[in-house]
TrEMBL record:
It is an enzyme of class 2 (transferase). Transmembrane segments: none annotated. Specifically methylates the N4 position of cytidine in position 1402 (C1402) of 16S rRNA. This is Ribosomal RNA small subunit methyltransferase H. Belongs to the methyltransferase superfamily. RsmH family. Its main location: cytoplasm. It comes from Rubellimicrobium aerolatum. Residues 323-333 have a biased composition (Low complexity). InterPro entries: RsmH, SAM-dep_MeTrfase_MraW_recog, SAM-dependent_MTases_sf. It holds the Pfam family Methyltransf_5.
Amino acid sequence: MEAAPHIPVLLRPLLAACAPVRGVWVDGTFGAGGYARGLIGAGAERVIGIDRDPLARELAAGWLPGFHGTIVLRDGTFGELDRIAAEAGAERVEGVVLDLGISSMQIDTAERGFSFQKDAALDMRMSQAGESAADLVNGADEGLLADILYLYGEERASRRIARAIVAARPVATTLELAGIVAGCLPRQKPGEKHPATRTFQALRIAVNDEYGELARGLEAAERALAPGGLLAVVSFHSVEDRMVKRFLQLRAGRMGQGSRYAPEVGAEAPAFEMVTRKSVEPDEAELAANPRARSARLRVARRTAAPAGRVAPRELGMPVLETSRTTGGRTRR
């Protein structure tokens, strides 16, 4: 079996927090298959992998048959992982792992348009279908672009950058967009992130509806997991981590449950118990082996027998575009 091309982030502490690993697991962000392989190696009987990127299936073609059905790969998004797991024959799901954001294989494939390091068409579509980053950059009005950059990328110069993008249209390539953004911001100092980092992050999140998918994926994991099953989520930036943290706090009954003197009437039974008290970060050894892990955070929780519930996006701290604007002939909210 061929080696995986990329190192799965925080795999060692994830497996330690979830030990003993057993039964059927769902890897909702399959990528190059690193977590799936790690789970099988740690004792999982079967892993159902899910990915919306056709590249994942291409990469798996050479090694997946060697696992003789213990790892299977299904097309789709992790927002529908409960349905996909059921259709794959999983009667009981003992664990779900989600590795959020963009994968190394997507960044390193220049023609996908995720990176500003090499020139390529502005694409950024994980599924390689639907509206691209170029459609958004060239079709959205200035106000919507500014909102996306501010809410999804936490870019303070969002209005200035949006104005410059609109003035420069049409914008066709990654380096062209990166140059426009760099021209709006102070000159980069040694060691600082590239000035276009937040803009590219924001556009990627918008194109792929990553925050909406995360909210749906957390609820789908809650529906799929059997009592005692484990949910492990690796996030890479503050908004994602906040959403995961708030979801687990809400569903573990740690928020909005009143005080011991005046408990909330009719509160739902907790659907999760926290396994990791706070987020787990990479140690020095992992950072030395994989510098891209520097911003990673792991949270793990155990499913109870309580019925699955719902959490409103605003309760998760999910950024929401307030105004209705038009881009590429369709309305975004």
